[in-house]
Design brief:
The chain is α/β, with parallel strands linked by helices and about 160 residues long. The protein has a domain of about 70 residues: Rossmann fold (3-Layer(aba) Sandwich), CATH 3.40.50. It is built from five helices and four strands; from the N terminus they run βαβαβαβαα. A four-stranded parallel sheet has the order 2-1-3-4, sandwiched between helices. α1 packs across α5 and α2 runs parallel beside α3. The protein is globular. The relative contact order is 0.25. The structure holds 5-nitro-6-ribityl-amino-2,4(1H,3H)-pyrimidinedione. The site of 5-nitro-6-ribityl-amino-2,4(1H,3H)-pyrimidinedione has 16 residues, from β3 and α3.
Length: about 160
């Protein structure tokens, strides 16, 4: 019998790509800080000279899938993290953005065989989004942990 699971310590060579939306950047930049803090504390080189980390900014969450696809084609990553914040407000655009971003990212992950963490907050209000991006808890941290676990798992299974 073989049991496979991700490692949180075997991170020295883990190559991580982060694709992040500028829309609601008050929220997304906080998610990024939490994410980088977690990666660094788990041994991923997050310095400016790192060869194991790239960060790509896009206008909004709708653009996350195409940018993720482009960087996958450009370089070899063990895992990607997508970060965004879609806040409901009064617009029906919300449903389109959430649905297209999540479908595009899942499809890309499945087809490329590279885990892609869906770090897109979907909330009714800015207050709820800020609470999840650091006022109460920073989910950026959780997304990074999930990335380390899935990146190392799929790397070992391949
Ligand atoms: N993009 C987001 O990331 N969050 C939002 O809440 C949002 N809303 O509400 O409209 C949003 N829209 C922009 C969208 O992602 C695209 O950038 C835009 O439609 C251009 O393609």
């Amino acid at each position: 019998m073989a049991i496979y699971e991700g490692s949180f310590t075997d991170t020295a060579s883990l190559k991580v790509g982060i694709v992040i939306a500028r829309f609601n950047d008050l929220v997304t930049s906080k998610l990024l800080s939490g994410c980088l803090d977690c990666l660094k504390r788990h041994g991923v080189d997050t310095s400016e000279s790192s060869n194991n980390l790239d960060i790509v900014w896009v206008p909004g969450s709708l653009e996350l899938p195409i940018a993720a696809k482009s960087i996958i084609n450009k370089s070899k990553y063990d895992v990607l993290i997508t970060l965004g914040a879609v806040i409901k407000g009064d617009t029906s655009h919300y449903d389109v953005v959430v649905s297209e971003a999540s479908k595009g990212i899942s499809k890309l992950s499945y087809e490329s065989n590279i885990p892609i963490i869906f770090g897109v907050l979907t909330t009714d209000t800015m207050q709820q989004a800020l609470e999840r991006a650091g006022i109460k808890n920073n989910l950026g941290w959780n997304y990074a942990l999930q990335a380390i676990e899935m990146g190392s798992l799929i790397k070992n299974l391949n």
